Amino acid sequence: MLFEVFRILDVPEAVRMQLCVGTSLAIIVPTTLRSFRAHREKGLVIPEVLRSWAPAAVAGVAVGSVTAALAPGGVLKLAFVLIAGIIAAKLLVGREDWVVAHHLPSRLAMSAWGFLVGLASSLMGVSGGSLATMVLMLYGKPIHNAVATSAGLGVPITMAGTLGYVLAGLPHRAALPPLSIGFVSVIGVVLIAPISSYIAPFGARLAHALPRRRLEIGLGLFLLIASMRFVASLVAPSLG
Hints:
By secondary structure, this protein is an all-alpha fold. The chain is built from nine helices and two strands.
């Protein structure tokens, strides 16, 4: 939605995708906090995963923020398409036998996964829930536990990502629209964050109420539709 709004407002192509990602991360901060609390009340969060992933995820976010400062917007679009496409394919196929192990890997491997989740999240402008959920399911965790734990990981990812995109956008102030702090649009945050934060607990309750397969299909279709929009803008620049 932010991409379409900024396109209509003629935000320059050189900074449009970065502004979308940074603003999205800022919007998600209160949303992830409320969502995590709602999931935690259900008792399905896996604490050891949060402890092992959080520091590495923040490091990944830092690398992603530097990439946003230096790379063209097309790189962020391509990252979104590739990562979202992989996650969508995994969810839509729905093969329960796609499990690499039935227990979590070593601490080093967990740190590596945390770094990748943080990096991907900062490039896509998301809290990392989709990717973290997929990884946890590959290690045999039920989808409801995976979703709840991923919501918790989104808290440090979005906070660090917002700060990173603010700093990354400071050298580009001349090209950014009014009321932007780095690559974060204050207007976008003020208009969207309160609504999304209010709705987040309802989404958490819906996730716990839905059967596993319906939850997978719904998330997979959403990611597929979103990624196709960026494919269109990459193939036809006039749509970007």
